[in-house]
Amino acid sequence: MKRSRLALAVAAFALVAIAATTMAAGSGSGSGGNRRVASGGAPTWANVAPIFAEKCAGCHTPGGIAPFSLLSAQSAKAHANGILVMTKLGRMPPWMPGHDSPAYLGQSRRILTPAEKQLIARWVRGGARIGGGGAVKPVGGTSSAPGTTMTLTSAQSYMPKAAVGGLDDYHCFLLEPHLTQDAYVTSAVIKPQQATIVHHVILFEAAGENATEARHLNEASGGKGWTCFGGPGLSETHPTATSADVDRLGVPPWIAAWVPGHANNALPAGTGVLVHAGAAIVMQVHYNLIHKAKRDRSRAVIRFAPAATTKLTPLNTILVPAPVELPCPRNVHSSLCSRDAAVQQEVKKYGYNAALIPAGLLYICGRSLADYPQSPASVKSLSTSCDRRVTRPLRIYGVAGHMHTRGYDIKIELNGKMLLHIPRWNFHWQDAYYLEHPVDANVGDAIHVSCKFDNSAVKQPLVNGRLLKPRYVLWGEGTTDEMCLGLLQAADR
Ligand code: HEC
User: Fold this and answer.
1) End-to-end alpha-carbon separation of the chain, Å?
2) CB–CB of 400/454 below 8 Å?
3) How far, in Å, from the CA of 96 to the mean position of ligand 1?
4) How far is Cα 460 from Cα 390, in angstroms, rounded to an integer?
5) Which of 274, 273, 282, 160 is nearest to 213 (CA)?
6) Nearest residue (CA) to ligand 1, atom 35
7) How far apart are CA 317 and CA 399, in angstroms?
8) Distance (Å, whole) CA 127 – CA 15
9) Contact 18 CB / ligand 1 (< 6 Å)
10) In angstroms, what CA-CA distances link 367 with 70, 321, 363, 387?
11) Model confidence over 375-418: pLDDT tens digits?
């Protein structure tokens, strides 16, 4: 076989690299390794490190949320087989939207190209050779979004505990931006104090009555914040007549979501989310306690641009909820399996108004209980959906889905065009997705949200290490309740 100059060069480079590792590590890599080097085939750390730096190291960093670092060649080599499996299956990097979803901003940093997957596979199969490779740095971004940066944190630190679910805690902190005038948020990055446990974060605006309530909850906790789950744990206020308020159905609006690896968490260029003068911000933190719980006081680094003097397109939150009516499996006989009992439970837990929501959702979606069989043969694939008519011209920039732990598939469509499909929903990987090409919606268009749930005995939430008993499940804020919610961030046109 005629060897090209390139192959010779690669082989020579690899030999030098092997010599360097041998010296560094104090031991050879074995005769097998040397033979491969001579044939000039397998890639080394130097070839794969840039991929790991760009697409993995936001999480796989020492002290990060992921279980090992991908910044050091030795650590990557030690996990080579796992890396091969997880990248081949498309499980890592975690990217929730399915193939039928449209393109989102920044997704190229969250998806491996086929060539990158192949290179990683060749590296692993070739013995995960280290070569001369030293440590690499994660590729990060600095925000160029307009505005000035404010770093906000809670008054007190908090010691997470798995109060909700086996290894998870959802906690809401009060942040006070002390805005004296309305301002746009253009970017929001979370700097976890305990990066090993901060899994994802959602920021909500708490204005008006919500601000008062959030401040009361925070005071009652001594400044440490409060336990929350599906949302910020604030009561729904009565929507006023303004169209943006009605879209939110009285629920506090989303500002932004963050997951580890979002180094530059900017809203789409030219847009911002309005936060009102005097408003508080609720930071909902999901702690994943696979790693040891440690006292945490994470910071939110938020860019604010004054609304009066900055020309930005304001994004409003539009909620598209669907009814949730999940009966018990047929073979389960318990008083908790009656819908009336479920409604009574909601009255007890959240008050009379919250308990009206299930009926309200049936009404606004034009459904009745007859659409939801009360004793289906199987509860493994219970579905629900809702169509919402667009009432004024919109430009849709961002889209997110929200269910709790029994949900496994959510779709949000506009006139049949997919805006977001998460085929394997995971409550622990929540994020907002910004469309690469914003989509216009016109008066009369239908926004369709649809969800699938599994209410089997084995799919019940784990609370304090124990699976709960199956019960009739309705829409509600708590861990043991469910939601089917499409969330759009859109501007009026
Ligand atoms: C957004 C954060 C994030 C990114 C980006 C990411 N990972 Fe992970 N990774 C995790 C977390 C967290 C876990 C722990 C298991 C879980 O929660 O799914 C994990 C687990 C893994 C595991 C399995 C470990 C085990 O023993 O179960 C492998 C292998 C892995 N990641 C490889 C990669 C590779 C390779 C990349 C880049 C191509 C990558 N990950 C990108 C967060 C991330």
Assistant:
1) 65
2) no
3) 13
4) 35
5) 282
6) 83
7) 9
8) 15
9) no
10) 50, 13, 6, 10
11) 999 999 999 999 999 999 999 999 999 998 899 999 999 999 99
